[in-house]
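Holo prediction — 2-phosphoglycolic acid.
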Amino acid sequence: MYFIANWKMFGGLNSLNSLNKVVNFFKGFKEKKTTKIIYCPPSTLILPMSKKLKSSGIDVGAQNCHQNENYGAFTGSINSKMLKNVGAKYVIIGHSENRSSGETNEIINIKIRSALKSGLKVIFCIGETLKEKRKKNTKQILNIQIKKGLDKIKNKKNIIIAYEPVWAIGSGIIPKSNELFKIIEFIKKKNKVFKILYGGSVNSKNIRDLKSISIIDGFLIGGSSQDSKKFIDIIKKTYN
Ligand code: PGA
């Protein structure tokens, strides 16, 4: 099972202290072999976090990258090669918080290709808005996002899909279990090779319901991942 912490735009150097708890927990965790923990902090923390988590078995990822795989005159941007250079092994691409500020499926496709080329694994986010859900367009939207996002990518073994309904992110609301099962099943059937994660308001209370959906391969966790205790709780409860 994957547990990916998306810290979003939160955290400074002092936030790294909170990782001690998670490192200690993971050291003695009986399900360690089948558990993959990945922290995606803001870019400013990738290097110090990678150093801190070295030999802990916990990996570090980035939250986004620029689409250009080479250096260039793009003020304020960071590309996948630069992220890899400071210790990132993964990168989240296509998060709805970036889609909503103009990131198209086409840009996402270029980003994914450049990230794979740089040797990063990709956490590819897809999900429908509330409006699209109400119109019963979910499957159609997911299809387009997957088709365009993964266009011309033959080798998909380093891609994980995170299904994150936009209306579930940060809202405290999660999809109904039967609906979520059907959507994950739908994505899996179309793309047999992928691991599929769920993301959106995952917390230590609703994890009991979510974990019962056996075809989910893990979780992308925002708010609840910033507090180590809550994050550990989610991991523990997934297994018992
Ligand atoms: P949330 O965020 O857990 O705070 O809803 C999830 C995400 O945006 O990846």
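READOUT: The chain has a mean pLDDT of 97.
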